[in-house]
Design a protein that fits this description.
Helix content: 25-40%
Shape: globular
Strand order of the largest sheet: 3-5-1-13-10-11-12
Number of helices: 17
Radius of gyration: 26 Å
Number of strands: 28
Structural class: alpha+beta
Length: 726
């Protein structure tokens, strides 16, 4: 039998664990990333000058010393930058298709906001000259920098991220909670975190007359095209975004960030190509961060473990100039049955860089409160945490009461528990040791919504029989090139080596952005429909005739078709989600209280798997990222100045190989015909969901100490452990 993540050799091509088709280009350095393109004209280099106050305005900017540095070409500021559109409204439902101006005025909204751009013949010269720019400020007297639940400093947004309702209510929570036989009432906090993809945010801009080309890493190329056009007040069709290879994104490359706009402005001003790359430190101010959140979880149940009351209250950081309230309570709305329920959100506007999506926005932080809270309830009841989850499995969506298109959570829990060896879990905390180490097991469920957006695919058969598929999709390391190639190859019955997929260019047809686990489903469905349209064109082909022979006989210039997938319906008939279960074993040193993840297993029902290898890689990557959220990742805010002080990879601690023990992924077979033409749900986001909660629950099982303030660093464990044993 092949390993569980593989498919037998006689199985269909879809689902096989095939190598990435672009893999050889990447490992040999021949896959060009955005900063690496060469232009016919010599390229200049820009370097951002950041603000050094949290809020206020520029009163004077002296660029004379910088302009005298040999090799400096220009210094842009609000005084001389090309004209741009005004900023977008503070509340804007279309987050990425909007104007994003920079250097438009003297106002400073957050620490690190660009106040100037130095452009020179070399990067080193631009960086040196940037230090010569002198800026004077008028500081705002009292910037808001502390997250709070104070009702005078929080507010109710009209909606939260992804269009979810701010609040939902069913039944009478207060009465049911008061009467519950067993209760949990706990506060959990999740920290500021930053997306830190390997490839930094870097853009090259070149104007040819009125036509602008940007080589820029973007998860949604068409959204970037529209955003840049609106910002520069030019027609959308005059802007081209080229982004075939992206070195990671995790949501950080969904918006159009400062370097893209500044490169376009500088290239326009100079009449030559300009590169602008954000440094790692600048990325902590001018790219996405996950907002800090405070969550109160209240659960009431009978002695049999059946939930009777559930309340999930969330306070999330947002900003005065751009509303983004992460939908953390949306997670608990779907997961478990409870007749009396309240799910509410508040925004707290702080004078910080705008928060935005980070892998599994809403579901990742929301799972911390829901899944840790349920573990606390299991402890209070004396019930196995896996069994408690199964007892509260809903018949339909608890929020909408729509039937689930498919829901593999119970299978994920039971199969995952069996393979992990959950039956060996110590029922009493602190009773299992390996040498000096205290050993603990933790579990958490996982969920991520399954939805998609419209996409269009072109498909062409060349006279030599080569099949070319094209769409403006992006591949940020997730396997888009490969899965689209597999779809075309299997659906048309041609070898993969005769298929070429072209993506990452807005001259190609519109595509679903690579975010929200939507890309594979939307773009794969459009490509599958294009294949079906092509098969109709090939109906007259003789059995003895090769594809190339048929094309040369009937259409010497080639055969071309196009197809559109409309995306998720506006009025869904089903509740559509991927589900999973995370199992973790930790070892905790009782002297230092250092936590080590020894084993992890994730079981996932993610619809039809297009490529077992790329799907497994996505899920493993999410689980590893979840370990960071559990134990190490925190952007530390200096509330005196509004700056994230650990703004590099020396002090922003990401998990490394030594932090990850044995790691396994179980793919639960599932094909959901209600979702899209190819039955997929997408594994990109769900891998991170529930990991932090599972680690926290495992730490409790090892030590008897409950840490509710994430990340679970050793000082927090040590403090609670010392108090418990003093």
């Amino acid at each position: 039998m092949p390993p569980e993540h593989e498919v037998a050799s006689d199985a269909p091509l879809i689902g096989k664990p095939l190598d990435r088709v672009e893999g050889p280009l990447k490992v040999t350095g021949r896959a060009p990333y955005s900063y690496e393109y060469r232009h016919a004209r010599e390229t200049a280099y820009g370097f951002i000058v950041p603000s050094t106050i949290a809020k206020g305005r520029v009163t004077e900017i002296d660029t004379s010393a910088a302009e005298r540095v040999p090799g400096v070409l220009t210094v842009l500021s609000y005084k001389n930058a090309p004209e741009q559109a005004p900023p977008h409204p503070r509340v804007n439902e279309v987050r990425y298709d909007r104007a994003e101006p920079f250097l438009r005025g003297p106002e400073v909204r957050y620490f690190g906001e660009p106040v100037a751009l130095v452009v020179a013949e070399s990067f080193e010269t631009a960086r040196h000259a940037a230090n010569q720019v002198r800026v004077s400020y008028e500081k705002a007297s009292n910037p808001e920098l502390e997250l709070t639940t104070d009702p005078t400093k929080s507010y109710k947004p009209e909606k939260v991220n992804a269009g979810f309702p701010t609040d939902t209510h069913q039944g009478d929570f207060e009465a049911a909670f008061a009467q519950a036989e067993v209760k949990v009432d706990a506060i959990y906090t999740v920290p500021y975190e930053h997306n830190m993809p390997m490839e930094p945010h870097a853009t090259q801009a070149e104007w040819n007359g009125d036509e602008l080309t940007l080589h820029s890493p973007q998860q949604g190329p068409e959204w970037c095209q529209s955003s840049v056009a609106k910002t520069l007040q030019v027609p959308k069709e005059s802007v081209r975004i080229v982004t075939p290879y992206i070195g990671g994104g995790f949501g950080a490359k969904m918006p159009t960030h400062a370097q893209a706009i500044l490169a376009a402005l500088a290239a326009k001003a100079l009449g030559r190509p300009v590169k602008v790359a954000q440094t790692r430190q600048q990325m902590f101010a001018n790219t996405n961060h996950r907002p800090k959140g405070i969550q109160r979880m209240r659960l009431g149940a009978g002695r049999d473990g059946a939930l009777t009351a559930m309340a999930h209250d969330v306070w999330m950081q947002t900003t005065p100039f751009d509303e983004f309230v992460e939908q953390a309570a949306a997670y608990s709305r779907v997961m478990y049955a409870a007749p009396n329920r309240v799910h509410r959100h508040w925004g707290v506007a702080l004078d910080l860089p705008a928060s935005d999506i980070m892998r599994a926005p809403g579901e990742e932080p929301g799972s911390v409160a829901m899944e840790c809270g349920l573990d606390e309830l299991a402890v209070a009841l004396g019930v196995d945490p896996v069994e408690l989850r199964i007892r509260n499995e809903p018949r339909d969506d608890p929020e909408t009461h729509l039937p689930f298109s498919s829901r593999g959570l119970v299978q994920c829990l039971t199969e995952g528990a069996r393979k992990f060896g959950w039956s060996q879990r110590p029922s009493k905390p602190g009773t299992l040791r390996d040498g000096q180490l205290l050993i603990g097991y933790g579990v958490a469920s996982a969920m991520f919504p399954s939805r998609t957006r419209p996409a269009v695919a072109n498909l062409r058969i060349e006279p030599d029989g080569t099949v070319v598929g094209g769409m403006a999709a992006s591949d940020l390391g997730t396997g888009t090139f490969t899965i689209l190639t597999q779809i075309v190859s299997e659906r048309l019955g041609v070898p993969m080596e005769k298929v070429r997929v072209e993506i990452g260019d807005t001259r190609l047809p519109m595509a679903t952005p690579s975010g929200g686990s939507m890309g594979a489903s939307g773009n794969g469905s459009a490509m599958a429909l294009a294949c079906d349209a092509m098969k109709e064109k090939l109906r007259g082909r003789k059995d003895t005739e090769s594809l190339a022979q048929y094309v040369r006989r009937t259409s010497p210039d080639g055969i071309e078709v196009s197809a559109r997938h409309e995306g998720s319906p506006s009025k869904p008939q089903y509740s559509t989600h991927a589900f999973g279960a995370q199992f973790v074993e930790v070892g905790v040193d009782p002297v230092t209280c250092e936590v080590r993840v020894r084993r992890m297993l994730g079981a996932f029902a993610c619809g039809r798997i297009l490529n077992a290898k790329t799907a497994r890689s996505q899920l493993m990557g999410g689980m590893i990222m979840g370990v960071g959220a559990a134990l190490t990742e925190e952007s530390v805010l200096d509330t005196r100045y509004g700056v994230f002080i650990n703004h590099d990879l020396a002090e922003y601690h990401l998990p490394v190989n030594a932090d990850i023990g044995e790691l396994d992924v179980v793919l639960i077979p599932e094909a959901d015909d209600h979702l899209n033409p190819i039955g997929t749900k997408g594994p990109g986001e769900i891998g991170i969901v529930g990991v932090a909660a599972a680690v926290g629950n495992a730490v409790y099982n090892a030590t008897g100490v409950r840490v509710r303030d994430f990340p679970i660093t050793l000082d927090k464990v040590l403090r609670h452990y010392t108090e418990a044993h003093s």
